[in-house]
Amino acid sequence: MDNILLYTNPMSRGQIARWALHEAGADYEQILLEYGGSMKDAAFLAVNPMGKVPAIVHNGRTVTECAAICAYLADALPEPGLAPSPAERADYYRWMFFAAGPVEAAVTNHAAGFDPAPERQMMFGYGDYDRVIDVLDTLFAGRAFVCGDRFTMADVYVGSQVTWGIQFGTMPRRASLAAYSARVTARPAYLAAKAIDDDLIASAQAAQG
Question: Which of 74, 83, 110, 196 could join 153 via S-S bond, C-beta 3.0 to 4.6 A?
Answer without folding.
Answer: 74
